Every structure is written in C-alpha cells, then in structure tokens.
Amino acid sequence: MANLTQLKALEDLAGFLLVDKPEGINFATVMKTVKRKFGLVKVGHGGSLDVQASGLMIILVGDATKFDKDVMGADREYEIEVEDAGGLKSTPAILDEFRGDIFQTEPRFAVIKREDTGVYEEVDTGEHQPFMTHIYRIDEIDDGHVEGERGSISLQVKCTARTNMRALASDMGGSLKKCRRTKIGKFGVEDAIPFAKLLELEMKDFSSCVMPLKKALQ
User: Fold this and answer.
1) Which of 18, 104, 139, 213 could pair covalently with 192 via S-S, beta carbons 3.0-4.6 A apart?
2) What is the pLDDT of residues 158-183, one digit of tens each?
C-alpha cells in the first residue's frame, strides 16, 4: 500500500509514459488500467492504437496532458504485414505510388469483439462513405525488412499522424494482417515498458518509468 508521501509524489507527477501495448487489448483499457492501478489523477494519450495492433502508445501523465495535440500530430512509423486479398500490389514501382501525399477514405471495416468467442475480428460494416476522405503523407514505405508469410508482404511505413494502416492495406489490394507501431515523433517502442511488466510494478516504482516533462519536450 502506498504511503502519503508516495501518493503526493504521484499527484505531482507529470511526464510521458511510453507503453508497449500488446495485441488484443483496447488502448483505452490500457489507459484506464494504468490510471486506476497507480492512483493517477489526470491522464491523456498521444494517439489511439487499433485493438489488433501492438506497439508504442504514449500515456500523458499530469500536466503533460496539455501537450496531447503536439504528440497526436507527430509523425509515426509502423511495421505492417499485408495479406493478399486477391489483388495485392507489391512491386517496387507500385509501392512508389503510395509515397508522398495520398488520399485516404475511412475504411468500411471495423474490428469488433465476438461475444461467443471473445476474439476480435475484422468485419465489413457496410458503412463506406466516399466523402470521408482525408489527405496524408507517407515519407517512406519499404518492403523486405521483415519476412512475411506466404501470400503476404511485410512493410515498414513512415507517415504523418492519422494515416490509417488498414486503409493503406486495402488500397494495396490486401488486408491488414499485422500492425506494430514502432515510433511516435522522436519516441521509439524500444524505450517503452511492456504493458504486462508495467502491471507488475509497485506504486513506489511507477514514477521511475515516467519520462519527466522537461526531458520529453527537449
């Protein structure tokens, strides 16, 4: 049980908590769990992450929540695996088409949790709306960095915030099989604490995992 000194320290704590989220858990659940376990008063985040995706998410603690828009607007990096859906386009010349400014339509697919099995699945919602189109930028998209399974390709993508990996896979003629976010701005997943390990921490050790606000903003 935390003593009054520890509780006061947590109340005054402000900084960035880098978490390596596993697949199969909602990013909001990660936030709520951390807030409840460590008795945090105010938390925010630096961008959502698909329930089926793993990788870096940034939890903003205390006064760091004032900088949520800065973190949300930072560029991202992903490692994705795209499965062939009957027309997968993967030659170098075709990949060039996805570099630079691109238009994306919000995908008609959603990830839902089946009540009978508890497994998350991608389903067609039938709510495709062509007018919901946005422009994004992909600075780099390279294949061959990670070996994929037969009938799929693995890519590393550097892009602007809110670029949708599921929509990108669809535009390439495939479906998103795996997705891992490796970077947000200057912050990398290699510096993040795995969510399961975070839950094993005692309250007195939590503050050492939070990057002080001054350092995070340098």
Assistant:
1) 18
2) 999 989 998 888 888 888 999 999 99
Do residues 161 and 47 lie in contact, with contact meaning Cβ atoms separated by under 8 Å?
A: yes
Length of the chain: 218
Contacts of 99 (CB under 8 A, 6+ apart): 138, 139, 140, 141
Look up the pTM and report it.
0.82
Containing domain of residue 126, as a range?
76-184
Look at residues 48, 55, 69 and name the one whose alpha carbon lies nearest to residue 163.
48
Q: Which residue is listed with tokens 């949790």?
A: 113
Contact 80, 176 (CB under 8 A): yes
Same domain as 118, residue 39: no
Q: Is the pLDDT of residue 32 over 50?
A: yes
Rounded to 5°, the CA angle 98-108-51 comes to: 85
Amino acid at 126: G
Nearest to 50 by CA among 131, 127, 129, 107: 107
Same domain, 135 and 204: no
Pair of tokens at residue 77: 């990096």
